Amino acid sequence: MKNHVVLAFLMVLLVTSSCDFLRSLAGRPTSSDLDRKRVEIARLEELKLQQEKEQLRLDSLIAARQAAADSLSAMQARMITDSLALVDSLQQLNGTILNPTELGGLYTTKLDSRYYIIIGSFSRRANAENLLAQVAGEGYVPVLISFRNGLHAVGICQSDRLAEAVEAFKSVRQKKFCPPDVWILLNE
Question: If I label 21, which of 41, 129, 137, 172 is the partner at 20 to 30 A Cα–Cα?
Answer without folding.
Answer: 41
